[in-house]
Amino acid sequence: MGNALAMQQDLVAFLVKQYQQLGPIFRIRALNQEFVILAGPEANIFVTQMGADKFRSHEVWDGFGCEFGAQNSLIAIDGPAHSQMRKLMKPAYSVSNLLADIPLLVDIAQTVVKRFQVGEEIPALTLFRLIVTEQLGRALADHAPGTNLQSIITTIRFGLNVHISKQTPSFMLKLPSYKRAKKDYLAMGQEIVDKHRTTVRDRKDLVDNILEASQKPEFQDMLGSEEQIVFASLGPFVAGLDTAANECTFLLYELLKHPQVLEQCVEVADQLFSEGLPTQEQIRAHNVLHDAMMETLRLHSIAPVVTRTAAKDFTFAGHSVKEGQNVMLATTVSHFLPKFYPDPYTFDIGRYSEERKEHKQRGAYNPFGIGTHICLGAGAAEAQIVLVMATLLHLARLEQVSPQSKLRVKNDPTPTFGTAFRVRFSEHRH
After folding, report:
1. pLDDT tens digit sequence for 368-394
2. Which of 45, 46, 142, 269 would be a feasible disulfide site paired with 390, CB 3.0-4.6 Å?
3. Boundaries of every domain in the chain
C-alpha cells in the first residue's frame, strides 16, 4: 500500500506534512507506483525558472487523448509543438474573448436560475455545471451542450479516472453506459465541427481557428485527422466541467459558511448590476468577491498537484532525478505553509489586500498548475467564477441543505464535493 491510504484521505495535507519533515524533494510509494515529489516554494520557483526542458506530459496524458482517437493533443505534447498549439488556442481561452458577450453569459445563468422555484433543492455542482458548461460552449464553440451534458460528464469522468488518476480500473471503459456516453459525446463534437465548416461567424471562435490550422502543414501531427479536430473542438466542454464549476461550488460553500463575507459579496453583486450589466473591467476589478474567489482557489485549488515525467536527468535541492522517473509537482503545498499564510486553513479574504498581498510572495500561490502546461484559461476561469457568482447572488438567495452535515472532499478526478453539497433556493431577489 505504501502511502496510498494517506494520499487518498487528503493528498495535499499529506504532502504538506512530508514537506515539513523531509524538505522540498522526497519519494513516495502508492501501490505499484513510485513518485519523486518536488514541493514547496523552492520547487515552484525551480519549475518556473528552470523547468521548461525538465518535465514532459506525454506519458501521463497520451492515453486520455488516444481514448478518443486523438494522438498528440495539446495536453499530451511537449516542446515546440506544445508551444505552437498553445499559441493557436490561447486567444479563444483568453479573458477578453470569454467576456466579449457578457449579455449572453448573464442570460445563460439567468435562464438556469429561473428553472428553480423557491424551496427547490439541487446539488450545487449540478447547478454550476449547467451554467458554466453552456457559457463556455456557446462562447468558444457556438454550441450549447443541452441534453448531452450528462454524456459529457460520464465520458470525461471515466476517461480521466482510468487514464490519468488511475483510480478506476480500465474494464470500466467497456461498460455500456460509458460507451453510449462516449458515442454521444463524440457525435456532438462532430456536429460542432460540421456546423463550423458550413457556416460563417462574425467573430471567429476556437473551432474556426482549429479548422483553419488543420489545413496548415505545421499542424498536421496535432490536427491532421478528423478525430484530432473533434477532440480539440470539444475542449471548451471539458474546460469548466471539473474546474470552474467545482470552484464555484467551493466558493458558494465558503460564503455560506461565512455570512458576513457573503453579505459583502451580495452588495458587490448588486452594485455590478445596478446600471444594467457589468463591464469587463468591473468583473476583473479588485473587490470582496474577487478576494473571496482568490481565497477559495488557495484552499480548494483546481490543480493541487501536477503529475509529469522527468524529461532528462537533473538535480534539485542537492538530489538527482533520473530521466523517466514519475514526478509529482506539489505546487499547492505552499498554500498551507504558515510562513506565507498565517493560520493557513482559515478562510481569510484579507490576505489579498494591498497591505498584506500574501499571495504575491515568491512561490506562494499556484492554483492553476505550473510550468509550460499551466492552465491555458486561468485568467478566463477567474473572471468566469466571479461573473457566475455575482449573477447568482444578484438573482437568488441560497441556503445549504443540512448545514450541520460534514462534507468530505474527494478526488473525482479533481477535488470536489460531488453531489453531497446541496443548496435550496430560499428567495428570488431580482
Report:
1. 999 999 999 999 999 999 999 999 999
2. 269
3. 4-428
pLDDT tens digits, one per residue of 297-340: 999 998 899 999 999 999 999 999 999 999 999 999 999 999 99
- Residues making up the annotated binding site are 375
Check the CA dihedral 83-88-93-97 and report its sign: positive
Low-confidence winner among 174-178, 231-235, 410-414 (lowest mean pLDDT): 410-414
User: What does the block give as the cell for 428?
Assistant: 428570488
Instruction: Round to whole Å and give the CA distance between 137 and 241.
Output: 11
| CA–CA separation, 330 and 328 (whole Å) | 6
Please give the Cα distance from 249 to 146 (Å, whole number): 21
Q: What is the pLDDT of residue 285?
A: 93
Residues of each annotated binding site for heme: 375
Write b or e for each residue in 75-87: b if 16 or more Cβ atoms lie within 10 A of its Cβ, otherwise e: bbbbeeebebbbe
The C-alpha cell that represents 383 in the structure block: 473572471
pTM of model > 0.90: yes
Fold of 4-428: Cytochrome p450 (1.10.630)
pLDDT of residue 425 exceeding 80, the answer is: yes
pLDDT tens column, 259-293: 999 999 999 999 999 999 999 999 999 999 999 99
